[in-house]
């Protein structure tokens, strides 16, 4: 799998990769990344689906939001670029957006997949992410090696190199805008999860220290029509490192949501 820059379309200030025809699959990446983080899904699933992988506001070629921003603003910008109902899959902060879409824009969401999502962080984890947000410079990005090590351990792979390029390529102020939202949020409220009645998938890596299996399992118990899938040996970037398992789970969700 290569992770080269792909051609873009644009709607309402949101840029996206668009491939394939059929039922819609919308893909939303996490902080500091790009739509290309989903190419292992787009390249496989676009054989039978219309796939759209969005750039978050301020990422890729999407227009930025002013800082400070809110999760609602990020979600509503993505919602404005959705022109037909479909299954929405989000990763990390993108999972927050996907779930918020399912709660506040249910007419757009036939099914929802939350990959490596956070829920009720421990006090220690919440403090750590807030500290990382507070330490972000307004002028230059921090060295991403600590983040990359959490995601890929010590492996020097094409996926790691692609993520390094994306993390160091995003504008500093736009990264900070998104990361501050990510740090301020603590995952969906239980009452909101209970309102997600469409088919749901909560999926994370068994080795993800921050978006833990327990979090995905807890959310799946609350959402009325959801299941949890834990990928053994995977960490935070499992849509890149364990694409086959992620694709199979998404295909199952799509069949359920569109039957």
Automatic annotation (TrEMBL):
Protein name: Alpha/beta fold hydrolase
Classification via Pfam families: Abhydrolase_6
SUPFAM superfamilies membership: alpha/beta-Hydrolases (SSF53474)
Annotated InterPro entries: AB_hydrolase_1 (IPR000073), AB_hydrolase_fold (IPR029058), Carboxylesterase_BioH (IPR050228)
Annotated ranges, domain AB hydrolase-1: 26-248
GO molecular function: hydrolase activity
Keyword Ribonucleoprotein: no
Alphabetical UniProt keywords: Hydrolase
């Amino acid at each position: 799998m290569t992770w080269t820059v792909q051609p873009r379309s644009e709607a309402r200030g949101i840029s996206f990769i668009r491939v394939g025809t059929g039922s819609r699959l919308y893909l939303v990446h996490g902080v500091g990344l790009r739509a290309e983080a989903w190419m292992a899904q787009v390249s496989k699933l676009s054989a039978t689906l219309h796939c759209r992988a969005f750039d978050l506001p301020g990422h890729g070629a999407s227009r930025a939001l002013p800082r400070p921003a809110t999760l609602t603003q990020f979600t509503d910008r993505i919602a404005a670029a959705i022109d037909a109902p479909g299954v929405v899959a989000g990763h990390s902060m993108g999972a927050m957006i996907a779930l918020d879409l399912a709660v506040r824009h249910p007419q757009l969401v036939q099914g929802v997949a939350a990959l490596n999502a956070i829920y009720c962080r421990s006090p220690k984890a919440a403090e750590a992410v807030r500290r990382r947000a507070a330490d972000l410079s307004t002028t230059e990005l921090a060295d991403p090696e600590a983040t990359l090590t959490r995601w890929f351990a010590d492996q020097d792979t094409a996926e790691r190199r692609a993520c390094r390029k994306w993390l160091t390529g995003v504008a500093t102020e736009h990264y900070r805008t998104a990361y501050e939202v990510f740090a301020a949020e603590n995952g969906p409220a239980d009452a909101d999860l209970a309102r997600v009645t469409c088919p749901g998938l909560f999926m994370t890596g068994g080795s993800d220290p921050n978006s833990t299996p327990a979090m995905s399992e807890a959310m799946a118990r609350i959402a009325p029509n959801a299941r949890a899938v834990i990928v053994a040996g995977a960490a935070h970037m499992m849509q890149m490192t364990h694409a086959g398992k992620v694709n199979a789970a998404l295909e199952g969700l799509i069949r359920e949501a569109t039957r």
